[in-house]
Design a protein that fits this description.
Blueprint lengths: L5 H4 L25 E5 L3 H7 L4 H21 L4 E8 L7 H17 L1 H6 L3 E5 L7 H14 L6 E8 L1 H17 L10 H6 L11 E4 L18 E4 L9 H13 L11
Helix pairs in contact: 2-3, 3-4, 4-6
This protein binds 3-methylbut-3-enyl trihydrogen diphosphate (IPE) (2 copies) and magnesium ion.
One 3-methylbut-3-enyl trihydrogen diphosphate (IPE) binds next to strand 2.
């Protein structure tokens, strides 16, 4: 792992999951993206194409996330941030919103043991405001139970919006300034990042959007400044580990310059 990332992920070698030989997958083990962000889109359209109700797509999509997180951990990805519910998704019919909340609640009860056994560390990014207290409680328990795990970090973006996150950070910083605990000249990028919902995670290296749309939909606006973007028409419930490998291959074929020049 890049030494610079040790501050985020630690150096423990304890691993429950058996690592896969990534070179046999055609991947360069030296350039596995540490943090992958995924916009899990296309659940409803996938279900419709199967002649099913939209909610069935959410159910299958949740299974897909389980498969992808497990596989990502095995190939050495350190963290996945998965967009599950946006601050704008409240605009949807109440029945769909309720179903998504119940699905989340179900997973936080039914799957936590397995996630824990697989050494997955759970985190959440998003606003707590508006989320049902029972879900908040389960989210807090999931974080507490898995906090010492050293495998892949699964950060689920729930009630998350990039604009909301930036406003939330600005308000938190402004109140520190108002209270006299922070000087205006001390507001650095690092201070700002500490106040984002993703604090403690490095910026994503790779952003994946399935479902055929080429937009960001208010996801990680600050954090994706230099992320490599990969999209596919495949809907999220049909996303597979093979597609993740394809996305990482594309990532590995790109030259990241961060605004600078690459010496040849
Ligand atoms: C993504 O799938 C899941 C959520 C936004 C909750 P969609 O529900 O947006 O599915 P499509 O894009 O309508 O097919
Ligand atoms: C983005 O998908 C949000 C999630 C996947 C949770 P949307 O379906 O909400 O995005 P738009 O409306 O197509 O931009
Ligand atoms: Mg959608």
């Amino acid at each position: 792992m890049y030494p610079v990332l040790n501050k985020f992920f630690g150096t423990s070698t304890k691993e429950v999951q058996k690592p896969l030989q990534v070179d046999t997958l055609g991947l360069n083990p030296e350039r596995i993206p540490a943090h992958i962000a995924i916009i899990m889109d296309g659940n409803g359209r996938w279900a419709k194409a199967q002649g099913k109700v939209r909610t069935y797509g959410h159910q299958v999509g949740a299974q897909t996330l389980k498969t992808i997180v497990r596989f990502a951990g095995q190939i050495g990805v350190k963290a996945i941030t998965a967009y599950a519910f946006s601050t704008e998704n409240w605009k949807r019919p109440v029945t769909e919103v309720k179903f998504i909340m119940e699905l989340l609640s179900y997973y936080l009860t039914a799957e936590i043991e397995e996630l824990n056994a697989n050494n997955v560390q759970m985190r959440f990014s998003g606003s707590r405001e508006g989320l049902p207290p029972a879900i908040l409680k389960k989210m807090d328990t999931a974080v507490a139970v898995t906090k010492n795990n050293t495998g892949v970090i699964l950060n689920i973006a729930v009630n998350y919006g990039g604009q909301d996150e930036i406003l939330h950070a600005v308000r938190a910083i402004a109140s520190q300034v108002q209270a006299g605990t922070l000087k205006v000249e001390d507001i650095t990028a690092a201070v700002f990042e500490d106040n984002l919902y993703t604090h403690g995670l490095p910026a994503p290296d790779l952003l994946i959007r399935p479902g055929g749309d080429q937009r960001i939909s208010n996801f990680l606006l600050w954090q994706i400044a230099y992320a490599e973007i990969w999209t596919t028409d495949v809907y999220w419930p049909a996303f597979t580990p093979d597609l993740l490998v394809e996305a990482i291959k594309a990532y590995q074929s790109r030259e990241r310059r961060f605004g600078g020049l690459v010496s040849k």
